[in-house]
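Thread: quick sanity check before group meeting

JM: Hey all, I'm pulling together slides for Thursday and realized we never actually wrote out the predicted structure for the chain we discussed last week. Dropping the sequence here so it's in one place. If anyone has concerns about the input, flag it before I start.
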Amino acid sequence: MKTYTKFLVNSFLKSFLNVFLIMISLVFVLNILKEIEFFSNKEVNAFYPIYLSIMSSPSIIFEMFPFIFLIGTQFFFIKLFNNDEINIFKYSGLKNIKIILILGIVSFFIGIFTITVFYSLSSNLQHYYLQIKNQFSKDKLHLAVINKNGLWIKDSVNNQTSIINSSKINNNFLTDTFITTFDEEFNLIRSVKSNKIDIKNNEWLIYDATIFEDNISQKSDLVKFKSNFNQKKIESLFSNLSSLSLLKLIDLRGNYKSLNYSTVDVDMQIYKILTYPLFLVIMTILASIIMLNTKKTNGKVIKIIIGLFFSVLIYYVNNLMNVMGSTEKIPLMISMWTPIIFLAFVNLIMLVNINEK
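JM (edit): ok, ran it. Output follows.
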């Protein structure tokens, strides 16, 4: 490795780590305040808010990485400008495009590390975090899970516990469903089988039901079943995909397909992870271009504000495209790739004459 390359890589990594440590410290403190508020009316060990904050912080930081790269790159160039090192490189024949290329390569490898190691760690910690928080939730007796055998729900209403298994979900209807209800002592009360259950509201409508009770079966055109779950709640239960590793997401996608459940959100999370290194490279290049084009601007604060402005703008545009993709207003691939392609195109335009900056 050439001396100037080693210097640039080390300087960039230091700037990146400094911003990373500042961000994770801020997130950690904010999380502690949130957990203290959550446990304010609960009798728990004082260590709990700190413990939960440690587990939830990495998942938030993962979402912030693009902006950590952007701000870290800005601080890297500020250091080069302050020490006049950028001009030394220029007089030595090292072009700006070469510096950007080196930073882009480093960002790509950090991105690979981020999705293979950091994301796996953060998703596992987030999974344990949600498990612990669920113990203190009012809904801890009401559970739902999707696996290769379909949708499973454990529901408790009026001192009765129901185990619900459905093989298909079609909008607000459960298909091929079997409901078994027990009393407080877990003695069997009755079982209900149906191929069509409307779960739009908390009072389910079971059509063409077969009821098994006291070893006798009977038919009913319509049975009403009270539940803590409805369509919206069931959909929201599986929306926190940040607690699943890439392999678990792929496995969950297969389970969703077998259940006829929409895979849009899972596909979006998978695509997001796979394209993450490329997105980080684009953010690094964008920050480099901003700094080189504002090199003559003396105010450091102004440069940082410009970077923050672009960060906020990119965040909202990216979020808008994600919402449109998740609601299927536009194809998922278009929603995922449009921000990346647009930013890459902007970078290419702004890279023209960058060596003269």
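AS: nice. The longest strand covers residues 160-170. The longest helix spans residues 96-135.
JM: adding both to the slides.
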